[in-house]
Amino acid sequence: MMNIIYPTQPSMPDYNTYISEIKDIWDTKSLTNNGPKLQKLKKNLKEYMCCRNADLFVNGHSALMIAICALNLQGEVLTSPFTFVSTINAIVQNGLIPVFCDIDDTYNLDVKKLERNITEKTCAIITPHIFGIPCNVNEIERIAKKYHLKVIYDGAQAFGTKIDGKHIGRYGDITMFSLHAIKVYNSIEGGLLTYKEDKLHEKFELYRNFGISYQENGNDVILPGVNAKMNEFQAAMGILGLDIVEQEIRVRKSLAQLYIKILEKIKGITTYSYEDRIEYNYAYFPIRVKESEFGLSRDELYLLLKEKGIITRKLYETLCCDYSYYKDKNYKRDVMYAKQVAKESLDLPLYGNLSLDDIEYICNTIITIQEEKKDVN
């Protein structure tokens, strides 16, 4: 049988260690509702990220929904079309109007084009650090201050990334992290908000627990919240995941460096230009396929790799503004370069359980595919 290399795989702690970690749940009978595991994980995350505030949720999308809701935003939001649809869904579900802005070679918002999309209705910038690659946070902060805008980062893919030694969760008004199974760091499922204003904690507590305010003379519901609480089994996985996340990132970095070393020699394949001042988490390894130089389109390479047992991902071949629900809406779209990137980008397999031999095999397969195309011509 053909050996399949999958695009992603979860990082997991030792099985017996996890069993030991969850054993006392049977003693405490505390399964959810801000249990001791969650409190421990919250403390550990704040220490790891050196952040002032952190709150945990059942998943990343719920966390992002609540973050937007808590800021009481109204009007238009500048965002990226080149992202997982959760980002845009959360904006629209909060009654806001997305304004799709173009991206640059970082796959993130092109800050040089942001201001031309700002109107009197603009209230915020809500955008991802896509592929774990950070946005130009300093320029976004400058623009936000100039126009009095809130900034929420969708850091779903960016846990562990640092800029000049500062964790990515310390930028913007709020940053959301997804702790989904396939992320660099996971709690099986889970969401995390880091933020600056202490007063937001009370709102987050209310929104994730049905809006219930607990009082001595009887409970009250003071806003329309949801059930977005993280349970103790998720928290236990998160506690142990923190012990192995730095090793996971180190392994991913070594694999990425080998990718770069080999792929830079292939005409028509472009890798991301990593900056020394940024400590990346290497959540993904995106490349761009220039058909005129490589000899094959991104889609053709994707299919030929699949035939050889190498499963890649075409992220994000459909821009969010082009999905059926959004394409006929009267939303502003300034996405010319994003459309080009969407046709060329391909995410190669990258996770801690891959070996250097796997990376060499993937790269050599790409070389072989290109050579075979040349021979046919």
Explain what the structure shows.
- The chain is of the alpha/beta class and 377 residues long.
- 38% of the residues lie in helices and 15% in strands.
- It has 13 helices and 15 strands.
- The protein has helices spanning 15-22, 25-28, 36-49, 60-70, 86-93, 137-147, 200-207, 232-263, 291-294, 298-307, 324-327, 336-344, 356-376, and strands at residues 53-57, 76-79, 97-100, 122-128, 150-154, 162-163, 166-167, 174-178, 191-195, 212-213, 220-221, 269-271, 278-279, 285-289, 345-348.
- The strands form 4 sheets. A 7-stranded mixed sheet has the order 1-9-8-5-4-2-3, with helices on both faces. Strands 7-6-13 form a 3-stranded antiparallel sheet, with no helix packed on it.
- β6 and β7 form a beta hairpin.
- α1 packs antiparallel against α8 and α3 runs parallel beside α8 (232-263).
- The model has no long low-confidence stretch (mean pLDDT 97).
Give the structure's gist in a few sentences:
The protein is of the alpha/beta class and 377 residues long.
Biggest sheet overview: 7 strands, mixed
The proportion of strand residues reads 15-25%
What is the structural class?
alpha/beta
Written as H for each helix and E for each strand, in order along the chain, the element string is HHHEHEHEEHEEEEEHEEHEEEHHHHEH
Give the low-pLDDT segments. none
User: Taking Cα atoms only, what radius of gyration do you get, to the nearest Å?
Assistant: 22 Å
- Termini separation comes to 31 Å
Mean pLDDT equals 97
How many helical elements?
13
Number of strands: 15
Helix content: 25-40%
Q: Order of strands across the biggest sheet? A: 1-9-8-5-4-2-3
Q: What is the molecular shape?
A: globular
